[in-house]
């Protein structure tokens, strides 16, 4: 992915903010991306 790319950053953002995340395969060539975020993440 180049610096000028207009797509492809979604999972990088998910990985940066999520405590856990993954991809589940589904029928008909579909995928579901899931993420878990801690409610206290980022608090001092």
Q: How would you describe what is shown here?
A:
The chain is an alpha+beta fold. The chain has one domain (about 10-44). The protein has one helix at about 10-15, and strands at about 20-25, 30-35. It has a two-stranded antiparallel sheet. The chain is flat.
Produce a short descriptive summary.
This protein has 1 helix and 2 strands, in the order H-E-E.
Query: What's the total helix number?
Result: 1
Uncertain segments: none
Radius of gyration: 14 Å
Shape label? flat
- Total number of strands: 2
Report how far apart the termini are.
Answer: 34 Å
For the residues shown, what is the average pLDDT? 83
Proportion of beta-strand residues: 25-35%
* Most strands sheet: 2 strands, antiparallel
Structural class: alpha+beta
Order of helices and strands: HEE
Strand order of the largest sheet: 1-2
Estimated helix fraction = 10-25%
Question: What's the structural blueprint in terms of helices and strands?
Answer:
Blueprint lengths: L9 H8 L2 E7 L3 E7 L8
Antiparallel strand pairs: 1-2
Give a quick set of tags describing it:
44 residues; flat; 2 strands; two-stranded antiparallel ribbon
């Amino acid at each position: 992915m180049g610096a000028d790319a207009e797509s492809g950053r979604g999972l990088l953002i998910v990985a940066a903010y999520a405590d856990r995340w993954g991809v589940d395969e589904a029928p008909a060539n579909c995928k579901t991306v899931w993420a878990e975020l801690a409610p206290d993440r980022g608090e001092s």
